[in-house]
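A protein record pairs a chain with a discrete description of its three-dimensional fold. The following entry can be read in just this way.
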Amino acid sequence: MTTFDSKYDMFPAGDVGVVEGEMNIPSQGGPSGESMEFNTLDEPIKETFMRDLRAVGNKFFHVLIPREKTSLLKDWDLWGPLLLCTLMATILQGSTERADNSNDGGPEFAEVFVLVWIGAAVVTANSKLLGGNISFFQSVCVLGYCLFPIALALVVCRVLLFMTQNSFLFFLRLVISMIGFIWATFAATKFLGDSQPEGKKALAVYPICLFYFILSWLVVSHSNV
């Protein structure tokens, strides 16, 4: 009987609410992943959208200044690559004049869209076959985000096309496209270089250079406003 009474002395009736409150404390002070999941379920949609938007912007910043190698590999996503691919395909569509004016330029959009994603997948598959220690979607994420310099070059070249074209402007567009190509290749190799075995890095870098060179050539060859 004494033992039974001592149990109730430890948990008085007035303290039941305190005990329930203390049971929630471990979940709030648990691991960061569980805490983030809990907060994500309760946060407003606007906050979720802004958080993802800031993450995409942060990845673009790391492509422009590729110093921290794990910034694109730690939390990969495909929102940035999809945005860049859609932007480039929209600007490049209709770049070839067709005799049939009823054609709305859709095939050009599809060609650019497919070229970007299939090209990124092929380069990633080559990296995996060479023994790279990076996941498929991480590599596609890096290759997609590193299109940013080429997309910037495309926008600048598009503005230059509104001027009266001459040899100097063509040379200027060529230089801008090559800067975008070198910048994109440097950023991609900066992020993906350490994922390849020592003796096979050149074999992994060559398809990356070819992939970005083809896209850069599309930029400089785009000549219709």
Q: What stands out?
A: The mean pLDDT is 76. Residues 76-223 form one domain.
